[in-house]
Amino acid sequence: MTKAVIFSNMYPSAEHPTYGIFVKNQVELLKNNGVDVKVIAIHGPGKSPFEKITKYMSWTLQSFFYLLVNKKSIGITHAHYAFPTGVLSYLGKKLFGIPYIVTVHGGDLDKMAKKSSRIAGFTQKILEDASRVITVGEKLRQDVVEDYGIASSNVEVMSMGVDTSIFKPMGREEARLLLNVPLNEHVLIFVGNLIEAKGVMELLDAYAMVKASHPDLLLYLIGSQKDQRFTESVMQKIQESGMTGVEFKEPVSQTELAKWMSAADVLTLPSYHEGFGLVVLEAMASGARVVATNVGGLPYLLQEGAGILVESHSGESLAEGLDQALSNELSREQQAIIQQKVQQNSFEVIIERLYEIYAKNGKGITRNL
To answer: Which residue of 145, 260, 326, 329 has the fewest CB atoms within a 10 Å radius of its CB?
Structure first.
């Protein structure tokens, strides 16, 4: 049985347990289903430009050395993010004939490929030479096909999947008691890095508007405050406006996050761009209403009434969506659509699809069950 090597420039560490957690989850899923997997990844973000460069250099050298020494026992490599990670898989194919697949997550096309023509050129080659391209959302699939000319037959939409053994409905009262959240208030949560591109400022504007009609509304911001300057501007905005009911929470484990999603009335994701929006799927699986911006993969995930879509960069539009979610119950038809989308993206479905891709495109990839 040959080995699958996973390359990723994001992977959790003890200090940063949620950094690239979606990659780790998929790796564990592969291992638990009998696939022989080796992971070579960057664990946690660098604290300084020098540390980041050092981490990337060490990761690149380690990856290349592993390919060189173990080339005969590697059946496929899987790169998470087209660039820079895909360069490792690309070299593995060109130098050692090892086939590869690449998962496009969004930032690699929306941000990285637009930094320079050189990076865009590398991205083009990486996507063209991949045995299969996976995109985590429908909009990314369109971008890969239309902007990079990749044959649609070679591009597959597949999310990173949701663990329905963790993210599942829990009694709201029970969840709130465990989290020490007021039982009789309306609870709105945001989950993600506290950065401008996540629409946090627009969220605060919307929260202030909605609180006028829902005075019992509370807002919990759950996520990393890695951009200290932006975090300070957020706190300043809260203080200067006299806003109440806003609390900050550090990143939590997935088990704890599932409790927060069960405790919440609404999860909101007002991002400016989003490849897929996995937290939205996790919230849907946990029973929370979802209000998110009409960007990236979110329209595909929230179509047919599965959630409420609003305009990006607009506090007013977000406020309207939040008010709608807080004021109206889900219909049985909407609940059925949500359950269908959760099932389509469950770990059980994702692992079968992913293994099929490995087996078809790799050399000697089998499962030891």
So the answer is: 329
